[in-house]
Amino acid sequence: MANSNLTNAKRTKNDEFYTQWGDIQKEVAAYVEYNPDVFRGKTVLLPCDDPEWSNFTKFFAQNFERFGLKKLISTSYAAESKTYKSNYTPTLFETSDPQYDKNKTVKNGKIFTLTGDETGDGVVDVNDLKWRYLEGDGDFRSAEVKKLRDEADIIITNPPFSLFREFLAWIMEANKQFVILSNKGAVIYKEVFPLFQENRLWSGRTEWGGGMWFETKNSDDVDKVIDGVNMKNVPSIWLTNIDHGRRHQRLPLMTMEDNKKFNTQIQENENSYKRYDNYDAIEVPYTNAIPSDYKGVMGVPISFLDKYSPEQFEIVWQASGNTRASAPKEVLKKLSYHPHLEDRGGCGVINNERVYSRVLIRHKK
Ligand SMILES: C[S@@+](CC[C@H](N)C(=O)[O-])C[C@H]1O[C@@H](n2cnc3c(N)ncnc32)[C@H](O)[C@@H]1O
Known about the structure:
Helices cover 25% and strands 21% of the residues. It is α+β, with helices and mostly antiparallel strands. The protein has an 8-stranded mixed sheet, with helices on both faces. The protein has a 4-stranded antiparallel sheet with strand order 1-9-11-10. Strands 13-14-18-15 form a 4-stranded mixed sheet. S-adenosylmethionine binds next to strand 1 and helix 3.
């Protein structure tokens, strides 16, 4: 037990997971497919991204012209400020530049900008990035990086998971478009879930199953090694407020009667379609078993949010350990919620037994 606590502590402090090119490409392609002009004339900020490490900067630099970007800004966080200390050594790219400073390379963040063909070779790519040291360490919360946020139209990155709540609030307070990676568990945070409910944030294109593979700098916490690169599987998902086609695909569903007749998972789960003791809603233990003909509120697995189409469903609230603390009183009243000894903050209860965290939904009329 003590050992596993130690491992967890190590993990939460390690924010050094690097996103693979293919994962970025697959995700971003969906936004461009849905709206070919989604990035046209826009300033994109990558606020946790040093191009020497990050594929985000390389990807957007290589696609600068194809996407019609106006400006790409990428900022990195100082080596000395990182919670997880790897053996930092500046790259040749930096040390061979006249502005190289051996103090600043560890204490200051860097800013990279791209606006056009600097080298004059007829193409816009990573070689056209200009860079300098930031005044501070590149913390996204600093006034210096906030100014860049305010200049940007779209913010894209895999942020430090340990600061995820703050990072999302930082984007939302500036009312920006965004595509970011998040830990799956974050969707029921009281700072995140209401944004889902209000359709101010939704799942990205990439499906949630299976976790995502990242390059990790922590050699003590590796799941597999591919071509000498340490990789870690993290239960991560993309969150965004930019539209894409998958978001508008309706779930194909059967009636309750047909589910009871043909869906073996429903037949084998004794809680299927039972009313909760503490909510005026029924338990639907699998997203594919949402009855097409039930008019009331249904509790469905959290992973429903991956399949949610706003044309098909309304999200009423969540039934989880966060509900009592986060739900507006009128929502609880509408759901006829009454606290139950077993509900631990608002989970659904059936025959005095708590069920998993659920999203409470109903069909759109
Ligand atoms: C999960 S990693 C992702 C890196 C890169 N975006 C990628 O996906 O390849 C998060 C990065 O944010 C940096 N970071 C941590 N705290 C930060 C802060 N307060 N401000 C800016 N960056 C921070 C970490 O050092 C790390 O490089």
